[in-house]
Amino acid sequence: KEKCYKLSLDLKQSTNGHVEALEILLLGLCGVPKENLRVHELCLKSGPNLGSEASEIRILCDLMQPEPAWTVRHVGGADQISVLVRTMVESKASKHVLRLFYLLGYKLDHELLRVGFAFHFQRGAQITVTVSSYSRLLKLHATDDDNVPVTPGIQMVEVTAPASAENYTEVAAAVSSFCEYLAPLLHLSKPGVSTGVVPTAAAAAASLMSFSGSTNIRHSEV
Amino acid sequence: TPKPLDLCSSPSPPINRRQSTNPIRRISFHQTSPPMDGSIGVGQGQQQQPQPQQDQQQQQQQAKVVERLNPAVQQQLNLESVKTRAISLFKAISRILEDFDLLARTNSVPKHDVSSQFSMVNLELYNIVEDIKKVSKAFVVHPKNVNAENAAILPVMISSKLLPEIEADDNAKREQLLYGMQNLSIPAQIEKLKARIDMIGAACESAEKVIADTRKTYFGARQGPTNILTLDKAQAAKIQDQGNALRNAVNHGQGLRLPMEQRQMTAALPAHLVDVLPVGENTQTISESSGGMYMKNTPPVSSNNVNNQGTLMQGSGSQLMGRAAASPGNAGTSSFDNTTASPLPYANSPRSAANMMNTPSPQQQTQQQHQQQQQQQQRQKFMQLPQHQQQMLAQQLRQSPMTGLGQNQLSQLHDLQGQAQNKYQLHGQNQMQYSQSLGGQQFQGRQLPSGGIQHGISQSQLNQGNQLNRHLNQMSGTANSALFNAAQATPNNQMMSNMSAMMTSQPHVARMQLY
């Protein structure tokens, strides 16, 4: 139930063929085994009864655990730190959290299924890198059915690290320097700005995968 | 004037050329050395700060001098980042070496990921070397003295070369080298040495070429015929668009909102939602404007429907049910039906006391519709009955052995009754409405027809709430909601302190206590 700021930097999305290469690179960089990720994300918005400004809450259900683990996440408005930085507060919750918010008057705005893998490690800060593909749910709450990726072939790479107002700059530096290692494959992008494909991506991916014997980088997508 | 300590790397990448063709100048153990411009070989004049005094100061300032790079060099090479990368590479390599150590000791087979780590290391090394190569002409290694101060920072090879033992070793090697040539004339010796150097140089070149070729084949094998750098504009634009679409979808939910028709509940909820959302219960959706999704036979009640999940407000089962049955005598209830899933199930209200439990009777549903039309009247009546409501509350609490409610909670609730009125802000006649269901998870008949809700919860109430939070944590969701019901939302009503568990204002979200 701790409150923390999270630095979240969206890296350029990588295409499917590069994902394996990215995984190899991350494995080498982080030194920890990957953890698989499967999260049902429900985004709730408050109704008009709860104030003039709608507030948004995300409820995340981690489906990889033996018992589904629920988390509440709230992303705040623009901060003093930077207009591009958002305060994010996360809290673990019981499974009743969804009903709780419904009771409060929150309503489901949209939901997502997120599937991928993550690395948690320590390098100047407690950093988490996730590579995931987001899918829409065709029917309400139908996470078990086949789902349609929002953008087929493109995955989202996110690097996050918890920070407080005091150590924000150090954590930001740690995250940025880590991201430099991903430079052959990815560009660090500002929120809202897409950076397209890195010119060295295919070559870097090829060299990373040359030892693992995997195949097929799809050039049509590059 | 040159500084005694010029921290530079050798002009050629150290890995490829073990036998450097650039001899490292050895000027050992000079205490004061005249400025040696020639020995520096700096192409771009590294040291920028003019030194007022010379020799003695040089030695003394050995360790204190701050090096500055020529700005042009600095542009081409970010020293800090290279240093960081080199250090990390070093750490990665040592980690890999440890792994190999372990493997060697245990005689096990290296796993796939070790080789992948190697490829990463290789790539990173290549990048660092390339970066250094760009500016290596600006640097030269030139230690003049090795002493305690600088021994730690000089690279091992350079510092060791200056130690007397190494020096002796060196001499021995030199003699060995020139062994066969002692008798020849000096120029001949020089010739021979040159030839030898050239041979070695050639060998290095070819080795380098082999490495580069191998690298290229690996690069090239994966590339295929197409040139990777030519992404035609359409493709690049398409990727850009897709990227933006993904970002918008993830951050803002664009393109993910299902239209009304599609928000039908799936036949089977996934496992993690099965016991969270009771079967048959409908979720709240922003785009809904009516309760149409709820029950087939319930007409939309008002335009500003909240569509709460009122069905979640379960009573604590039998007790409340028993109560409902047994409480005929609430003042003012006579005008209301006892059996309805009332649209106004205020715990304190005369009506709700009788209607705390919904029985899923068909009667009920038709009556509901009936009552919805009477809502307005009823609300007005509620507002006029504060005293009664309080009494109801007292009654109910005394009588209902709610799960998890301890004695002190009851007394707290009583206390609340005696306190000043809460500041509920209601819009017009909209009031929060809850319907309760019987114990268990039957929600088919439930309805939360109408009314927007507005609450303002003042801070004092929140503080009170903290006292009850412990108890809340112990209670199940059903009992909780029953408590909540007990503190209903008419004006002039005491707010139950458990409202604090359901803060609605934004800033409090972070402090929410979730059970």
UniProtKB/TrEMBL annotation, chain A:
Molecular-function annotations in GO: transcription coregulator activity
Listed GO CC annotations: core mediator complex; mediator complex
Keyword annotations of the record: Nucleus, Transcription, Transcription regulation
GO biological process assignments: regulation of transcription by RNA polymerase II; termination of RNA polymerase II transcription
Keyword Transcription among UniProt keywords: yes
Subcellular location: Nucleus
Family, as annotated: Belongs to the Mediator complex subunit 18 family.
Name of protein: Mediator of RNA polymerase II transcription subunit 18
Organism this protein belongs to: Ambrosia artemisiifolia (Common ragweed)
TrEMBL record, chain B:
Biased composition (Low complexity): 45-62, 299-308, 363-399
Gene Ontology terms: cellular component: mediator complex
Chain intervals with Polar residues compositional bias: 17-34, 309-319, 330-342, 349-362
Region (Disordered): 1-63, 284-400
This protein's name: Mediator of RNA polymerase II transcription subunit 8
Gene source species: Ambrosia artemisiifolia
